[in-house]
Amino acid sequence: MALGRKTWVNFARKSSKTFLRNAFFIPKQNFSLLNYYQPKFTNLFTQLTNNKLQNCLSQTSTSHPGCKELLEAINFGNHEHDIFADPVCSLYLLALIRDRKIAFNTGISVYQYLIGLMNFTNLQPLAPEHQDFKVDRAFSVIKFAEDGELTDTGKKYLHAICEEFQKFSYQVDFESCRDFILTLSPSELWLSKLSLKPGYMSQYDNMMEIIGTTVPFLIEVECGIRYLPSVSIINFLFNQMSPKPLRVHPVFGLTKHDVYLKMLKGGFHPGALYHPLASDNLVGAHGISAGPFAMLVHDWTHAFWINLFSEDDQKIIHESAQRIQHLKALAFNKGYNSLYEDLHLAQVYLLDFDLHEIQKFYCPKTRLSNYLQTFQKIMDTAATLEDKPVFSLGQT
């Protein structure tokens, strides 16, 4: 029995020498190691409000047979291995990442798969308070490549990605992508196959329908079917959008708004990881309680939306947010409470980079102006405060 397993009793059943490959290689085309972001393992836990997960993890040794089985399954890309039915598999995986038995991005890619198993199957547990998020949807893995060649599904999917990127005026070269993909370790070649349920729209389906139609690597290749690739493939695609793209920073727990703003300024967006032992798991956003897998996909989506803006455009957006901050102070000091609240919401939405009406943002020449137009009216209204008197106490 693995140390720390007793913690799981209330909601989970009890339960060689292998090769290691680097999960991220530098292809010959324009791709720089300087753009490769790999956060510290301990940064995964900075937003948690208790140490329950870390305490259990500290008692999990990579010498445990479960860790060794998982390592072998990962190295051989065997997503059907029985170890993925072990309810403490996620602890084994985090231990392997912690002790650098696998590359960080490889580990997070496999963790994406585990979140899918938690959300859509009975192979992995959700926390007791999140059982309602168990969704009856088909979830499986398709291989992007096998035996040194793209699979038929992989070719079809990659062609679709390249075509979708063209809508945003990005030229993503099929051969360059293929060559990069073929350098990846077996488990980084997994495509998580997601399905929507025809004729029935749960909050999960609603969220996936909204964001799935806006991101090239989430496009609907088959009717009701979407795919999510590995972390390294998504990062590679982000590199085709910008020489210095925003990266997703995986994290357990809820990211506080002030931390989110600091991350944005540093070129990062939080990526919500779920664990049954973690405090304050993110299971909803934008008023939609969609569950843990949709929240991770949601964060990849926001990162893509932000990367649609150039570095200069992002700077202008942040300057606009600072302008709103100034106007908020002006409204507060003069007693315009309702206007202050409106400005606060505008500032939050401005830095949320919500581009779900994606057709407005296909053209790079009008992308920034179309985005800022949403917030211009409230900023123009607030700008007139310079000439307005201070309200009496209690007025709004």
What does this structure look like?
- The longest helix has 23 residues, at 311-333.
- Mean pLDDT is 86; it is low at 1-36 and 391-396.
- Strands 1-4-6-5 form a 4-stranded antiparallel beta sheet, with helices on both faces.
- It is 43% helix and 9% strand.
- The protein is built from 13 helices and 8 strands.
- The chain starts with 51 loop residues before the first helix and ends in a 13-residue tail after the last helix.
- With 396 residues, it is of the alpha+beta class.
Topology, element by element:
Blueprint: H1 52-58, H2 65-75, H3 89-98, H4 104-120, E1 139-143, E2 145-146, E3 149-150, H5 152-166, H6 174-181, E4 190-195, H7 203-212, E5 220-222, E6 225-228, H8 231-239, E7 247-252, H9 257-265, E8 268-273, H10 292-307, H11 311-333, H12 337-350, H13 364-383
Parallel strand pairs: 7-8
Antiparallel strand pairs: 1-4, 2-3, 4-6, 5-6
Pick out its properties:
396 residues; four-stranded antiparallel β-sheet; two-stranded antiparallel ribbon; 8 strands; 43% helix; 9% strand
In short:
The chain is built from 13 helices and 8 strands. The chain has helices at residues 52-58, 65-75, 89-98, 104-120, 152-166, 174-181, 203-212, 231-239, 257-265, 292-307, 311-333, 337-350, 364-383, and strands at 139-143, 145-146, 149-150, 190-195, 220-222, 225-228, 247-252, 268-273. The strands form 3 sheets. The protein has a 4-stranded antiparallel β-sheet with strand order 1-4-6-5, sandwiched between helices. A two-stranded antiparallel sheet has the order 2-3. Strands 7-8 form a two-stranded parallel ribbon.
